[in-house]
C-alpha cells in the first residue's frame, strides 16, 4: 500500500515539541513514532471546495478539495488533532466544520464531509477500521452510505445479471451507515441499489471488476452528474478516487446556434442520429441525453440537409459529464466549440461563466460591478479575444449573492458594447452568458443567456387551430370499425410550437396515442407520444418544434393515431390538416368497375382537398403488385369516363399509386370532384379497362350500388334479364343522380320504389329512359331528409317493368356501397 507521510510542522504539534529542542546537554531517547492511516473524502454535494487542516495547518496538501474527491491514504502520527474544514467562499474563507479526532496506531480513518449546507446538516463522519491485508485472490471493499439525499436503501453486490428478486441485499443502510470490511473473490460483479424493502433499482453499476488485491472504499454519494439515478458511487483505492456511474447515466449536451448569418440548422451525429432539428440563431437547446462515446458531428441546413456547414467535427463525450456545443463564427467559416460544463450547485456562492463567441466584437474587457460604473476601475477580465481555435471564457467565477451589472467593452475603452442591467444573483444558482454577434450585420454584439440567466420561455399563443376527425377509414390499410375520435391541434407559428388534445372516449382498451410523421395514405414513425390525462383524453403539452417540422405539420404531413388492444397498429387515425382541407377516404374494388370485375384485389384510397385553392393530393393503396397504370377519371359512380390525371407508382412500395405532388383543379372540375364525380381506376394486363375502381367520395357524398335481377322481385320472377348501376347522393343538399343499365329485356318503365328487401312498395319517383338500356335519375332530383334516411337504411329499390311482367321483371335494392 502506498503511504505518504503528512509533514506537520513541529510548531503546531505540542505533543511532539520535545523532539524539536536545541538542547544538546541532555540526550533523551525519543520513542519510536506510531502512525495511523488517514483519507479525506468530500461528500457534501452542495458545499464549496474546501481546505482541510489539522491543528490549524493544511493537512497533507489538502487544498481546494472538490466534491466527490477522495484523497490518497496517508500516514499521520498518532494523537488527538483538531480537524478543520474551511470552505472556500467568495471574498473570505470560513471554517464550516470542526472535530477533534484521536488517531490510534495501525488504524485506518476515512474522514467524510457529508450532509448539506442548504439545510444545515453538514457534518464530519469518521469511518474507522483496522488495517487489514487483502488475501491472495481476493478483493476487499467497505461500503458507506454518504448520499444525504437518498433514503434508507438495500445494496446488492452480485454476479452480473443476477436476478435480485431472488437475492438478499448485502446490506440495508441508512445515511451515514457503513459496512465492515468485506473480502470477496476477485472478479466481475454488479452493484445495485434499491429503496429498502423494494426491488425497483435506482442505481445499477453494470459490470465492474474487483481486481485481485484491490482494497476499495465505495461511497454512495448524491449524483450531480447526468442520468436519473439519485446516487453515484465514489470508489477510493488508496491512491486516489474515481466515480462509478449508473450504467444508464450517459452524457448530456446542449447546442447553441451562434452564427448570426446562418439559417436554422440540424445537428446530426455519425451521419444518422439527429441530435437537434431546426435550431435558429441565437437559440439554445435544453440538455440532450446521449450515450457517452466518440461522435462525428455535422451541422447542416434544416431546410436542406445536403447543405453542410460543419462536416465530421470530432466530439468525445464522457459518461456523467455535461457539455455546451457552440456553433460560432460566420457561415463562410463556421466553427464548432464544445465546452465542458460544471453544473453542480454550490449553496455558498453564485457561479458565473462568460464565454466570448462574437467574432465581430474583437478583443474585449469584461467588468462585473454592483452599479455599472466602470470609469474608475479595472476590468475583471482584460483583453479577452475571440479565438477560432478555442473559445475563450472566464471559467466559473464564484460570486457572493447580490446585484451585479456585467459590462463588456472593446479592449482599452470604457464604451459599453454590452451592458446587462442589474442581475440579481442567488447562491446555489449557475449563470452562463455567451457573447454572440448581433442579428444583423453591423449590430452590436448580444448575450445569449443560459442557466439561471435564461429568460422565461415565451408564452404559447396559438394562432392556428385544427379540428381533426379520426376514423378507421384513414388507417393504412383501412380498419373496419364504428369507433371514432376527435382532436384539437393548436399551433403557435412564432415559437414555433404546438399542442394536441385527443378525445378517445368513443374507443375501448386504448393502449397509446401518438403524433406520427407521415402524409395522407402513408404510415410513418412516432414523432411525439401523447400522455393519458384521464377521462378519455390524451394530451401533448405545448411542445417546441423546428421550422422544418412546423412546415411538415402545416402541410398535412403528420397524423394522429390511436392504438387499441384490438388494433395494435391503430384503430382510428386522423390526418392533421386545417379545417379548410377535406380528408376523403374511399374503397377500391372490382364491383365498382363498369361492368363489374370478379377479382379478389382491393384497395383503400385517401385524398386531401384544399378548399382554399382547389389543390388535391391522393394516394391509393392496393393489393395489386403488377398494375400497369392507374388514373383519376372523370365520371360518377356507375359511369365510365375519361382520364383526368395519371397517377405514379411509389418507388418504395408496390401497389401504392399517388398524385405527383398536388393537382390543382379548375373550379368546374373541383365542383364535380366534391360532388363525387371522379374515380380512381387501377389497370392490369388481365383487365386493361380496370381491375379495381374507387369512387372519390367526400364525407357528404354517398354512393349506392344497384344489382337488379328477377329473384329480388316479390314474388320472384324467372328471367335472364339483369341490371347494374349506381346512385350518388349529396347528403348536404339531398341531390340524387345516377343510372342503372339493364340487359336481356325491354323495359317500358322504371321507378324507384319505397320498400325494404322482400317487401313491395309505392313509387317514389320515375327513372328516365336513355339509350342502350340506361335508365337515369331525372336531373335536379332531390330527396327530403326523411327519404335520405329511408335510403340509407336500405328502404328503397329500383324496379324495371316490361310487357311480360307489368309489376316488374327485375328489381334491385339500393344499398350503400358495392359489397
TrEMBL record:
<feature type="signal peptide">
    <location>
        <begin position="1"/>
        <end position="21"/>
    </location>
</feature>
<feature type="domain" description="CHRD">
    <location>
        <begin position="700"/>
        <end position="819"/>
    </location>
</feature>
<dbReference type="GO" id="GO:0005615">
    <property type="term" value="C:extracellular space"/>
</dbReference>
<keyword id="KW-0732">Signal</keyword>
<protein>
    <recommendedName>
        <fullName>CHRD domain-containing protein</fullName>
    </recommendedName>
</protein>
<dbReference type="Pfam" id="PF07452">
    <property type="entry name" value="CHRD"/>
</dbReference>
<dbReference type="InterPro" id="IPR010895">
    <property type="entry name" value="CHRD"/>
</dbReference>
<dbReference type="InterPro" id="IPR052278">
    <property type="entry name" value="Chordin-like_regulators"/>
</dbReference>
<dbReference type="Pfam" id="PF14344">
    <property type="entry name" value="DUF4397"/>
</dbReference>
<feature type="domain" description="CHRD">
    <location>
        <begin position="462"/>
        <end position="581"/>
    </location>
</feature>
<dbReference type="InterPro" id="IPR025510">
    <property type="entry name" value="DUF4397"/>
</dbReference>
<dbReference type="GO" id="GO:0036122">
    <property type="term" value="F:BMP binding"/>
</dbReference>
Amino acid at each position: 500500500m502506498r503511504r505518504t507521510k503528512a509533514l506537520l510542522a513541529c510548531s503546531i504539534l505540542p505533543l511532539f515539541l520535545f523532539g524539536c529542542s536545541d538542547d544538546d546537554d541532555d540526550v533523551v531517547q525519543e520513542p519510536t513514532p506510531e502512525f495511523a492511516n488517514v483519507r479525506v473524502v468530500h461528500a457534501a454535494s452542495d458545499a464549496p471546495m474546501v481546505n482541510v487542516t489539522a491543528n490549524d495547518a493544511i493537512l497533507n496538501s489538502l487544498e481546494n478539495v472538490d466534491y466527490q474527491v477522495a484523497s490518497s491514504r496517508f500516514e499521520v502520527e498518532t494523537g488527538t488533532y483538531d480537524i478543520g474544514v474551511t470552505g472556500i467562499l467568495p471574498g473570505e474563507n470560513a471554517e464550516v466544520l470542526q472535530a477533534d479526532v484521536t488517531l490510534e496506531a495501525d488504524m485506518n480513518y476515512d474522514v467524510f464531509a457529508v450532509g448539506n449546507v442548504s439545510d444545515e446538516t453538514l457534518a464530519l463522519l469518521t469511518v474507522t477500521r483496522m488495517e487489514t491485508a487483502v488475501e491472495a485472490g481476493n478483493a476487499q471493499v467497505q461500503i458507506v452510505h454518504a448520499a444525504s439525499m437518498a433514503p434508507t436503501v438495500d445494496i446488492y453486490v452480485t454476479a452480473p445479471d443476477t436476478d435480485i428478486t431472488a437475492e438478499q441485499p448485502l446490506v440495508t443502510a441508512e445515511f451515514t451507515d457503513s459496512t465492515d470490511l468485506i473480502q470477496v473473490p476477485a472478479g466481475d460483479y454488479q452493484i445495485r441499489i434499491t429503496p429498502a424493502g423494494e426491488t425497483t433499482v435506482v442505481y445499477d453499476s453494470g459490470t465492474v471488476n474487483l481486481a485481485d488485491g484491490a482494497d476499495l472504499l465505495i461511497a454512495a454519494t448524491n449524483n450531480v452528474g447526468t442520468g436519473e439515478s439519485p446516487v453515484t458511487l465514489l470508489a477510493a483505492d488508496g491512491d486516489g478516487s474515481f466515480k462509478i456511474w449508473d450504467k444508464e447515466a450517459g452524457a448530456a449536451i446542449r447546442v447553441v446556434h451562434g452564427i448570426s448569418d446562418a439559417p436554422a440548422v440540424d445537428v446530426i451525429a455519425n451521419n444518422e442520429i439527429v441530435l437537434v432539428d431546426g435550431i435558429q440563431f441565437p437559440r439554445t437547446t435544453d440538455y440532450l441525453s446521449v450515450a457517452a462515446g466518440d461522435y462525428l458531428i455535422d451541422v447542416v441546413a434544416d431546410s436542406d440537409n445536403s447543405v453542410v456547414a460543419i462536416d465530421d467535427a470530432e466530439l468525445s463525450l464522457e459518461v456523467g459529464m455535461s457539455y455546451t456545443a457552440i456553433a460560432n463564427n460566420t457561415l463562410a467559416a463556421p466553427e464548432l466549440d464544445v465546452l465542458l460544463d460544471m453544473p453542480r450547485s454550490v449553496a455558498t456562492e453564485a457561479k458565473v461563466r462568460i464565454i466570448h463567441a462574437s467574432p465581430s466584437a474583437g478583443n474585449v474587457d469584461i467588468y462585473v460591478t454592483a452599479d455599472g460604473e466602470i470609469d474608475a476601475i479595472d476590468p475583471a477580465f482584460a483583453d479577452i479575444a475571440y479565438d477560432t481555435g478555442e473559445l475563450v471564457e472566464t471559467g466559473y467565477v464564484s460570486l457572493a449573492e447580490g446585484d451585479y451589472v456585467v459590462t463588456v467593452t472593446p479592449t482599452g475603452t470604457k464604451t459599453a458594447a454590452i451592458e446587462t442591467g442589474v442581475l440579481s444573483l442567488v447562491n446555489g444558482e449557475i449563470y452562463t452568458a455567451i457573447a454572440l454577434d448581433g442579428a444583423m450585420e453591423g449590430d452590436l454584439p448580444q448575450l445569449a443567456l443560459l442557466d439561471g440567466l435564461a429568460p422565461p420561455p415565451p408564452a404559447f399563443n396559438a394562432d392556428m387551430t385544427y379540428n381533426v376527425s379520426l376514423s378507421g377509414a384513414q388507417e393504412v390499410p383501412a380498419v373496419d370499425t364504428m369507433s371514432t375520435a376527435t382532436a384539437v391541434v393548436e399551433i403557435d407559428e412564432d415559437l414555433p410550437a404546438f399542442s394536441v388534445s385527443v378525445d378517445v372516449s368513443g374507443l375501448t382498451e386504448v393502449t397509446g396515442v401518438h403524433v406520427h410523421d407521415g402524409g395522407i395514405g402513408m404510415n410513418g414513425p412516432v414523432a411525439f407520444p401523447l400522455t393519458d390525462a384521464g377521462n378519455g383524453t390524451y394530451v401533448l403539452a405545448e411542445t417546441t418544434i423546428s421550422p422544418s417540422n412546423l412546415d411538415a405539420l402545416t402541410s398535412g404531413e403528420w397524423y394522429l393515431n390511436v392504438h387499441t388492444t384490438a388494433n395494435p397498429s391503430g384503430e382510428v387515425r386522423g390526418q392533421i390538416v386545417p379545417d379548410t382541407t377535406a380528408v376523403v377516404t374511399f374503397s377500391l374494388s372490382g364491383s365498382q368497375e363498369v361492368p363489374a370485375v370478379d377479382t379478389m384485389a382491393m384497395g383503400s384510397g385517401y385524398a386531401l382537398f384544399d378548399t382554399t385553392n382547389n389543390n388535391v393530393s391522393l394516394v391509393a393503396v392496393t393489393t395489386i403488385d403488377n398494375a400497369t397504370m392507374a388514373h383519376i377519371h372523370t365520371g360518377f359512380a356507375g359511369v365510365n369516363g375519361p382520364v383526368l390525371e395519371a397517377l405514379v407508382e411509389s418507388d418504395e412500395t408496390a401497389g401504392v399509386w399517388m398524385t405527383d405532388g398536388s393537382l390543382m383543379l379548375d373550379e368546374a372540375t373541383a365542383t364535380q370532384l366534391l360532388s363525387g364525380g371522379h374515380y380512381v381506376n387501377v389497370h392490369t394486363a388481365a383487365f386493361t379497362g380496370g381491375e379495381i375502381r374507387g369512387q372519390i367520395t367526400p364525407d357528404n357524398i354517398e354512393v349506392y350500388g344497384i344489382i337488379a335481377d328477377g329473384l329480388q322481385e316479390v314474388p320472384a320472377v324467372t328471367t335472364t334479364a339483369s341490371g347494374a348501376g349506381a346512385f350518388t347522393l349529396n347528403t348536404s343538399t339531398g341531390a340524387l343522380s345516377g343510372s342503372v343499365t339493364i340487359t336481356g329485356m325491354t323495359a317500358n318503365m322504371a321507378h324507384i320504389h319505397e320498400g325494404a328487401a322482400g317487401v313491395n312498395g309505392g313509387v317514389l319517383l320515375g327513372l328516365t329512359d336513355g339509350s342502350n338500356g340506361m335508365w337515369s335519375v331525372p336531373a335536379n332530383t332531390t330527396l327530403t331528409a326523411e327519404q335520405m334516411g329511408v335510403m340509407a337504411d336500405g328502404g328503397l329499390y329500383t324496379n324495371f317493368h316490361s310487357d311480360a311482367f307489368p309489376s316488374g321483371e327485375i328489381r334491385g335494392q339500393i344499398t350503400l356501397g358495392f359489397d
